[in-house]
Specification:
single chain, 351 residues, 2 domains, two-stranded antiparallel sheet, globular, disordered C terminus, binds heme C
């Protein structure tokens, strides 16, 4: 009896110590418990990806004004760069280059994300530094390597243009302001959702929309755990994750730049180093090259890198092919037409 109480106390103290002071394994931080792959996979049992619905309730006049602004280099300092210079809607909403090229050829070592479905993202930019689409607009307009302009310059130019003055007056009682310009552009971006991919048709109940290989690819996407990060309607865009959850992606890089720091640039928290907003995989077959650093030229490359660094495993060739095939089924429709690349661009994305 004499010994039982001290032993009990020691045991209790040890348990408390372990619970409170034992360092958490990286996985517990990296992978949130949002979705776990079900033990037995059936095509119906995933639940964590939902089809894209077309947005209702947008104001058509504001969308049209936003579209005009989006395509107009008037927003850049020397009238040469528009949003569409880098986010080309006919090229999957990107520039198809590893890096961003802006005003006067200014290069930023960061890949241009697509604008399609950006309204589904919980935050904007690779590091999530803008909370809304409206807030995001300030970035490109004033960035010296993108449009290199200022708001006062943009507003005075638009106010000197009678067509814009009328269009703004028709939609906004305040006329031309930073808020109304940003709102119109964001309203247009909210119209850039791409519903009705064959995968979404499948999710909505058309079991013949995907072929047997694509369904296999979908099962792998879930059972391997891709879906833990690429989930929700956007299949991404709703959380931050480390690039290199299982293996150090940046270990052998001697050319690290600020962009590689990811979310750390916003929070200055060590934990956020190399963490990025998980990108949406919608229309991913059209948006090569891949990753924040544009380092993966093809979907196959991207899948291999993901398997190695995010899952810590090597996939068989067949598994990779199935995953790539599944990712190709994520291409949706814009204005009632399936998105595609011009023939000259097909090859790189199709490999
Ligand atoms: C010079 C090329 C360039 C121009 C011009 C440009 N962007 Fe971007 N855009 C980028 C790059 C690069 C990023 C990613 C930057 C980052 O994450 O730090 C980005 C990010 C975005 C995002 C966030 C998407 C996401 O998934 O996080 C949106 C939305 C966007 N741009 C819309 C616009 C709009 C609207 C305009 C015009 C007002 C515009 N861009 C002009 C290069 C450009
Ligand atoms: C631990 C979270 C996580 C897991 C698991 C994961 N990914 Fe990713 N994925 C990311 C992040 C973060 C990025 C962006 C990395 C970067 O740009 O540096 C990304 C990027 C991608 C991209 C490039 C998208 C683009 O537009 O650049 C593809 C394709 C992709 N993942 C597919 C997959 C597939 C397929 C799997 C499963 C084999 C998978 N991912 C597993 C987090 C994850």
């Amino acid at each position: 009896m004499k010994f039982i109480i001290p032993i009990g106390l020691i045991a209790a103290a040890t348990i408390i110590l372990v619970i409170f002071f034992f360092p958490k394994s990286p996985e517990t931080k990296i992978i949130p418990s949002v979705t776990r792959a079900p033990a037995k996979i059936t095509a119906e049992s995933y639940g964590s990806i939902s089809p894209i619905r077309s947005v209702d309730g947008l104001d058509p006049a504001k969308v049209a004004l936003g579209e005009q602004l989006y395509n107009d280099p008037i927003l850049s300092d020397n009238n040469t760069v528009s949003c569409a210079t880098c986010h080309i809607l006919d090229l999957g909403g990107t520039n198809q280059l590893p890096m961003s090229v802006g005003i006067n050829g200014g290069v930023q070592k960061i890949n241009v994300p697509t604008v399609f479905n950006s309204s589904l993202n919980f935050k904007q930019f690779w590091d999530g530094r803008a909370d809304t689409l409206e807030e995001q607009i300030d970035g490109p307009i004033t960035n010296p390597l993108e449009m290199g302009s200022t708001w006062s310059e943009v507003i005075s130019r638009l106010e000197a243009n009678s067509e814009y003055v009328k269009l703004f007056a028709d939609s906004y009682s305040e006329g031309v302001t930073q808020t109304t310009i940003s709102h119109a552009l964001a309203e247009f971006e909210r119209s850039l959702t791409t519903p009705d991919s064959t995968f979404d048709q499948y999710l909505k109940g058309d079991k013949d929309a995907l072929n047997a290989d694509e369904i296999e690819g979908y099962k792998l996407f879930t059972s391997l755990g891709c879906v833990r990060c690429h989930q929700g309607t956007g299949m991404g865009g709703n959380m931050f994750q480390r690039m290199g959850a299982k293996n150090d992606y940046f270990a052998n890089r001697d050319d690290l730049n600020t962009h590689d720091m990811g979310r750390f640039n916003v929070t200055a928290d060590e934990f956020d180093k190399h963490r990025f907003k998980v990108p949406s995989l919608r229309n991913v077959a059209l948006t090569a090259p891949y990753f924040h650093d544009g380092s993966a030229a093809t979907l196959l490359d991207a899948v291999q890198v993901m398997a190695k660094y995010q899952l810590g495993r090597r996939l068989q060739d067949r598994e990779q092919e199935l995953l790539v095939g599944f990712l190709r089924s994520l291409t949706g429709e814009y204005k009632g037409k399936k998105l595609s690349l011009p023939n000259t661009k097909q090859t790189s994305a199709q490999q």
